[in-house]
Design a protein that fits this description.
This protein is of the alpha+beta class and 530 residues long. The protein folds into three domains: 142 residues, DNA ligase i, domain 1 (Orthogonal Bundle); 196 residues, DNA ligase/mRNA capping enzyme (D-amino Acid Aminotransferase, Chain A, domain 1); 125 residues, Nucleic acid-binding proteins (OB fold (Dihydrolipoamide Acetyltransferase, E2P), Beta Barrel), CATH 2.40.50. 36% of the residues lie in helices and 23% in strands. The strands form four sheets. Strands 11, 12, 13, 14, 15, 16 and 19 form a seven-stranded antiparallel beta sheet that branches. Strands 3, 4, 5, 6, 7 and 8 form a six-stranded mixed beta sheet that branches. It has a four-stranded mixed beta sheet with strand order 1-10-9-2, with no helix packed on it. It is globular and about 70 Å long. 32% of the residues are buried.
């Protein structure tokens, strides 16, 4: 536990990529496989869900610290992070735990879920009494479900690759999908034998960056394949040894959620892996993403939902053919092989994503303006001679998205952020005008500079009207331009609408709250909302 807490501190204290990789490599060199595998699992983002109710943690910590509940809540409000607040208020530690990290996870953390409150209290308080401050902080992060530190899965892969001398692509492949955090599996991750036997395992996805600037800078348009950018769920359909597996980009096995795609994939030859987009589909066009959300959260899909929200897979790429990894050959050849593979299929629920024919970049600019009317988000640009890479890369694949929708809105609520932003009000709720009142429609926390965040923080502290726990209702004075990628009806929101990926585009210091947009103007952005 001490080594993992030290690693967390080192990762949290630096923004240097090389130092983070060095810290992880040093850690993997010194800990046993049983500890390393759990560390890998948590570092790549597979954190445990919250296992103890927040209110109970606050009660138990207040009791041990000898402080009243109101003082704990006031401290929490100032600190902004529950794990850190508990760590700061608990009595000073008298020692440090020497118990291995994997034993804390397997014997104490995991059994907390489903245990009665008396057992939970006993385990949690006993852990606090045995740990030093660094260990307590990490433990608190784990039991609150708030564990995160500034490393991506890609950085963890690079660290494991350097430690093991195995190429990063192989490590990435082995970390995909479901796997048990055991010492044996850790040894498999680092195995020099790269012939993995797991028939269900997907390939790491190739991701791309947004195109910034003039597309003509990419060279001749004939060097690129242009496709519409669909708004669904990226996924891989796998057919191996007579079995079908469907994986989402979030590394979730979703085969049973899309039985129509599973049925369609049965006709694929063995040794096939297709990369594509799962979309809710109407007669001849995609349905709104909100329709797909009706299926995303369901463990099982009933007959009515299957009829109401049918899905298709628009296939982008062929990653494996006849059991052979073909990611290293050109996209143009992979695309031709994909077209040949899908042509004889009678079930069109797996279909190839159509190419967009553009004579010039200017012609494509004109076509891109049709994106919203087609229910898409713009274009995907793929260099014809590109291989299928791992992770997010620049140069060969780009997403050329349409400009976001925007409205001018008033900030009405604010809340402190988390982690490095814990001391500042950085999470905001925005509203538009409806007659003489303001109706909230979106929350956002990105888009402002550090200097602007400090200005808004001072405003919140001086203009708070009401307090609702950590939330502050503020005087409706500040106007911001809010950008978002989509809009839809919603019965869950007071405004009657919901927006996708809201963020702050700019601070409109030139406008007053009376000049903010109205709910009618917001709804008018999408005709079918009127």
């Amino acid at each position: 536990m001490k080594a993992f807490a030290d690693l967390y501190r080192q990762l949290d204290e630096t923004t240097s990529t090389n130092r983070k990789i060095d810290a992880m490599v040093n850690y993997f060199q010194t800990v046993p496989p049983e500890d390393a595998i759990w560390s890998v699992r948590f570092l790549i983002g597979r954190k445990p869900r919250q296992v103890v109710p927040t209110r109970k943690l606050m009660e138990w910590a207040s009791e041990l610290a000898g402080v009243p509940d109101w003082l704990f809540e006031a401290s929490y409000d100032v600190v902004g992070d529950l794990a850190e607040t508990i760590t700061l208020l608990l009595p000073k530690p008298t020692g440090s735990s020497t118990r291995p990290f994997h034993r804390w996870v397997e014997k104490h953390l995991l059994p907390l879920r489903g245990a009665d409150l008396d057992v939970q209290k006993k385990v949690v308080c006993a852990a606090w009494s045995q740990m030093d401050d660094g260990q307590r902080f990490v433990w608190n992060k784990l039991i609150t479900g708030g564990f995160r530190v500034g490393v991506s899965q890609r950085l963890v892969v690079r660290a494991l690759s350097r430690y093991s001398a195995i190429d990063a692509a192989t490590i990435s492949h082995r970390l995909m999908g479901e796997w048990a955090p055991t010492a044996d599996y850790y040894e498999q991750i680092l195995s020099q034998d790269t012939q993995d036997a797991d028939i269900s395992r997907p390939y790491p996805f190739y991701l791309c960056y947004p195109l910034v600037g003039d597309p003509e800078s990419l060279g001749p348009v004939d060097d690129w394949q242009i496709e519409w950018k669909w708004d669904g769920i990226r996924g891989q359909v796998i057919k191996r040894d007579g079995q079908v597996f469907i994986w989402s980009r979030g590394e979730e096995l979703v085969t049973d959620k899309y039985p129509e795609l599973k049925q369609a994939a049965v006709s694929l030859p063995d040794g096939t892996v297709i990369d594509g987009e799962i979309l809710p589909w109407g007669k001849d066009r995609p349905l709104p993403f909100s329709e797909l959300q009706r299926r995303i959260g369901r463990k099982t899909v009933g007959k009515k939902l299957l009829l109401d929200v049918p899905v298709v897979l628009l296939a982008y790429d062929l990653l494996e053919a006849e059991g052979r990894d073909i990611r290293s050959i050109s996209f143009e050849r992979r695309r031709a092989a994909l077209s040949e593979l899908l042509a004889p299929l009678s079930d069109n629920r797996i279909r190839i994503s159509p190419a967009v024919l553009g004579k010039t970049w200017q012609h494509l600019v004109t076509l891109q303006r049709e994106s919203r009317s087609r229910g898409v988000e713009g274009f995907m640009l793929k260099r014809c001679d590109s291989m299928y890479e791992v992770g997010r890369r620049r140069g060969n694949w780009w997403k050329w998205k349409i400009d976001p929708l925007t409205v001018d809105a008033v900030m009405i609520y604010a809340q402190r952020g988390h982690g490095r932003r814990a001391g500042l009000y950085t999470d905001y709720t925005f509203a538009v005008r409806q007659g003489d009142s303001l109706v909230p429609f979106a929350k956002a926390y990105s888009g402002l500079s550090d200097a602007e965040i400090r200005q808004v923080d001072r405003f919140v502290q001086r203009n708070t009207l009401e307090r609702f726990g950590p939330v502050r209702a503020v005087s409706p004075q500040l106007v911001f331009e809010i950008a978002f990628d989509g809009i839809q009806k919603s019965k869950r929101h007071k405004s009657g609408i919901a927006v996708r990926f809201p963020r702050i585009a700019r601070w409109r210091q030139d406008k007053t709250a009376e000049e903010a947009d109205t709910i009618e103007a917001l709804k008018a952005l999408v005709p079918n909302l009127q």
